[in-house]
Specification:
Layout lengths: L3 H5 L2 E3 L7 E7 L7 E6 L8 E7 L3 E3 L2 E5 L14 E8 L3 E10 L4 E3 L1 E6 L15 H10 L6 H13 L10
Antiparallel strand pairs: 1-9, 2-8, 3-7, 3-10, 4-6, 4-8, 5-7
């Protein structure tokens, strides 16, 4: 199958102590930028082993589990049962995640990973995931002579207008 070579090769560790595993560090990221991190973990020669991938050190975000099992043999690289997807961000230029085995014969595997920057929300000047009055205050404070005020206000205004009440008689 086309996915055979991808899943055959891996970087891994063997252990019989639950919680042992691998730390993955990705350098060169933008601090405080959110990323989607997809980590493939599969070993076709092992019995069922559950792996938990979690942010560690300077990195925050969600955790996720993947169970490495022999069968079914993956026929596609994007077999959802063979990877975990995390949304993470780091306070500096390095993302750190740890994969430790929870159950099974032991060991953690990385077949590959994919890192994708999550697009920022237009008008979310404080990067809290919402466009609101806090963003307007930041915009008002930091708009200078070199900034076209109408263009700068445009993302905030359009995002804010999507949340206005419908026109018409009050109910």
């Amino acid at each position: 199958p086309p996915a055979h070579a991808f899943y055959r090769d891996y970087f891994g560790t063997n252990s019989t102590i639950a919680g042992d595993g691998l730390k993955l560090t990705i350098d060169g990221v933008t601090p405080e930028q959110e990323y989607d991190l997809k980590i493939w973990s599969h070993d076709p020669a092992t019995a069922a082993t559950e792996i938990r991938w979690s942010p560690t050190d300077n990195t925050t975000g969600n955790s996720g589990d993947v169970t490495m099992v022999r069968t079914p043999v993956p026929s596609d690289v994007d077999d959802h049962s063979k990877y975990v997807l995390l949304r993470v961000k780091a306070s500096d230029a390095s993302l750190d995640v740890f994969g430790g085995f929870l159950t099974g014969p032991g060991g953690t595997r990385i077949n590959g990973f994919e890192l994708t920057a999550v697009p920022a929300i237009a008008g979310d000047f404080n990067n809290d995931g919402a466009v609101n009055g806090d963003d307007l205050a930041i915009w008002k404070e930091h708009v200078g002579a070199a900034v076209d005020a109408a263009a700068a206000a445009s993302p905030w205004s359009s995002a804010r207008s999507r949340r206005t009440r419908p026109h018409g008689p009050a109910c």
